Amino acid sequence: MLNIRLAIRFIFNLKKSSYSSYASWLTIIGLSIGVAALMLTTSIIGGFREVVSDKLSRLEGQGRLKHFLNRPVLLDHDLLKPIVSNSNYKINPYVRGACMIRKGKNLDGVIIEGISQYPNLTNSKDSNFVENNQIVLGESLASSLGAKIGDRVFLQSYAKSDLSLLSSKMYSFEVYNIFYSGLQEYDKNIAYVGLKKAQSLLGFDFNEFTGLIIENNQNSSIDVPYPFYYETWKERHALLFEWMLVQQWPAYIMFGLITFVGLINLFAAIAMIIIEKNGPITILLSQGMDITSLRRVFMLQGGIIGILGALIGGVISIILISIQVNFSLFKIPSEIYFMDHVPFSFELGKYLIILILVNILSIVASWLPTRSFKNLSPAQVLRYE
User: Fold this and answer.
1) Is the distance from CB of 368 to CB of 374 less than 8 angstroms?
2) HSE (CB half, 13 Å, CA atoms) of 188?
3) DSSP alpha helices (H): ranges in 119-237?
4) DSSP 115
5) pLDDT at residue 166, rounded to an integer
6) Entry pTM
7) Which of 127-131, 177-181, 227-231, 254-258 bottoms out in mean pLDDT, i.e. has the lowest?
8) Of all helices (H) and strands (E), which one includes residue 216?
9) Distance CA 44, CA 280 (A)
C-alpha cells in the first residue's frame, strides 16, 4: 500500500510549476487519444464488415446454385433431385436478366430479378411478396426515374437470340415498394418482380430458372454435381472482404503509432520525475527502502498513468460509438463506401486486448528509466543534491 500511495502522490502532488507535473497529465491525454483512436478504428472496421455482411447475406441469400454454362436450371433435373428433396434446404428458384425500364421520358437499364419474395432489408413485418404486376425498385433507380410508390413503370426485354425491336416484350408494372440497402450496386441496378412475370418477360419456360437460392439450415457445405455449382454470398464477394482485411492494417499501424508516442512521453515523464525527486528518493533509501521497492513505486506510477489514459480513452470512444449508433451523425458518400453513415460495432474482446496491452506497455515504459537505480546509494544521490 505504501508503494501505491507514493506512486499516486508523485503523480498528483507535484509542484504546479514543475515540468514533470505537466508531463504526467500530457501523457495521460496522449494515451487517451491513442486508445480512443485505436478503439474507434476497431469499431469502424468491425461495423463496416458487419453492415456489409448483413446486407449482402439478405440480398444474395445464403448461397446460389447455378449452371456452369449459364444455362437454365430445371427443378426436376435428375442431378438436382437429392438437393431439392432435402428437408434441410429451403429452395427458392429465381430468374435474372437485363431489361430497359422507363417512366415517362426517363429511361434506364436495370437487372430484373424474378423471385417470389424480395429481400427484407428493414426487419419489418410487412409482406415482402411480389405479385405479378408489381415491381420493387432500388432507391437510386427510383430517384433517377422519378418514380414513387403507386406509379407505373414499363419494362422492355428482348428475346435471347434476337435484339431487334420486333422481338422485344414490354410490360407495365406498379411500383409496390422502394428498398434502400446503401449498396449502390443494388440500389441503382436491381429491381424485383414476381417470378412468373419475370419468366415471361425474360423468355424462360415455366420450369426454367436462372438458379436456385438455397438456405441451408445446418450451415454445412452443399455438394453439387457437375455441371452445376453452388456459391455462397461470401465466396461471391471474396475480393471485397480481402480488400477490407488489407485496408484495416494501415489504420491500425497509424493509430498504434499515436499510442506509441504516448508511451514515449510516459518514459520521458517518469525520467523527469526521477530527476526532480532526488530528495525524496534519498530519504526513502536512507530509511531502508530497497532498490526493488523504489523501482516498483515508479512502475506503479506508470501503470496508474496507463490505466487513467486507457480508461479515459475507452470512455470517450464508447460515448462516441453510442452516439453514432443511435443518431448516425457522421455521414459518408454511399456511392463510395456502400453505406451513408460511418458504421460502428462494439468489439468488447478487442477493446480488452487494447486496454491490457496499453497497461502492460505503460509498466514497461516506466521500468526502463528505473534501471538507473541498479547501483544507486544514498551517498551517490546526496552528491548531486
Assistant:
1) no
2) 6
3) 139-145, 184-187, 195-202, 233-236
4) -
5) 42
6) 0.76
7) 127-131
8) strand 211-216
9) 47
Rounded Cα–Cα distance for residues 217 and 236 (Å): 20
Summarize the confidence of residues 71-77 as an average pLDDT. 92
d(CA 351, CA 359): 12
Say which amino acid occupies 214: I
Helices (DSSP H) in the chain: which residue ranges? Answer: 2-12, 19-60, 81-84, 139-145, 184-187, 195-202, 233-236, 238-276, 278-286, 291-327, 334-337, 348-367, 378-383
Residue where the block lists cell 437454365: 72
* Rounded Cα gap, residues 354 and 228, in angstroms: 46
**Length of the chain, please?**
385
CA distance 242 to 65: 23
Nearest-angstrom CA–CA distance, 20 and 15: 9
Nearest to 38 by CA among 283, 266, 256, 203: 256
CA distances from 330 to 153, 339, 342 (A): 35, 11, 6
Boundaries of every domain in the chain: 2-56+240-383, 69-225
Query: Residues 186, 187, 189, CA angle at the centre, nearest 5°?
Result: 60
User: What single-letter amino acid sits at 197?
Assistant: K
Between CA 217 and CA 28 the distance in angstroms is 50
Distances in Å between the Cα of 190 and the Cα atoms of 146, 172, 310, 336 are: 16, 17, 46, 18
Average pLDDT over residues 313-320: 93
By DSSP bridging, strand 152-157 and strand 228-232 are unpaired
**Rounded (5°) CA angle 207-118-328:** 160
Q: How far apart are CA 150 and CA 173, in angstroms?
A: 9
